[in-house]
Design brief:
By secondary structure, the protein is α+β, with helices and mostly antiparallel strands. The chain is 46% helix and 16% strand. It has nine helices and nine strands. β2 and β3 (73-78) form a beta hairpin. α2 runs antiparallel to α9 and α6 (132-141) runs parallel beside α8. The radius of gyration is 26 Å and the shape is elongated.
């Protein structure tokens, strides 16, 4: 969270005696808000730089609250769901458990403390994540795709094809397949097998999204200019 706040309003009022006193807080709020807007966009652009094919949803998770004449403070922040995704890359550390990982853990398929990562053979979406239809087919094969989940998803041709392959998936690393690496495997018509999802012990992110530094740099870059523009507008409209 980045906070932009102006103090010393009496000193600024003294320096701008040509303006009506009520215009100064509006000018300040305008400058703060235009700066916050540019900080928000800088943060969104940084997400596109440091992440591999981030989704539009995660980019737009960066938002800001506006300052008012009575509260000269704007806040740039990721919304609650965006925080879960972005925080590990801001501070470093273990990533959040994904919903389908939680389903697998609760069913005793994914061991405690392990995480799921796509293998080289897993079909990915355009953002580099495991394809959602593949995940759906795997959950169906494990008996974890509930009727409610299926009802909420339109059955496209692509999704139907993926679900029809659900019987080809199985769990490796246990039972008759204990000789295989832990994860979700797929068996082809020729009986050849390949890993689709792997169960790994750690899914740690390095600190690569420097949220605070990006915001502070943008404030230093644009705020003075935004303040000058807001004051000039106040002067012009006061005439």
């Amino acid at each position: 969270m980045i906070s932009l706040k102006i103090t010393g309003i009496k000193e600024v009022q003294s320096a701008l005696r040509n303006l009506a006193s009520e215009q100064i807080p509006y000018a300040m709020a305008t400058a703060i808000n235009s700066t916050a807007f540019k900080v928000m966009n800088a943060e969104r652009n940084e997400i596109k730089t440091v992440f591999d094919r981030p989704t539009p949803w995660i980019q737009k998770s960066i938002r800001y609250t506006k300052a008012t004449k009575d509260n000269l403070e704007a806040i740039v922040y990721p919304h609650s769901e965006g925080t879960k995704t972005l925080l590990p890359s801001v501070v470093g550390g273990q990533r959040e458990v994904k919903p389908y990982e939680r389903l697998m853990r609760n069913a005793g398929i994914l061991p405690a403390g392990r995480y799921v990562v796509p293998s080289h053979a897993c079909k990915l979406d355009r953002y580099g994540n495991a394809d959602s239809d593949v995940i759906g087919a795997i959950l169906k094969s494990l008996g974890l795709l509930s009727a409610a989940m299926q009802a909420g998803r339109k059955l496209t041709r692509k999704r139907s094809k993926a679900l029809n392959q659900s019987e080809t998936y199985f769990v490796g690393g246990q039972g008759a397949a204990r000789h295989l690496a832990p994860g979700i495997w797929q068996r082809s018509a020729s009986r050849a097998v390949k890993p689709i999802l792997l169960f790994v012990t750690r899914a740690v992110y390095e600190r690569r999204y420097r949220f605070d530094e990006i915001g502070e740099r943008e404030v230093r870059k644009v705020f003075v200019g935004e303040m000058k523009t807001a004051i000039q507008k106040a002067i012009d409209t006061a005439r």
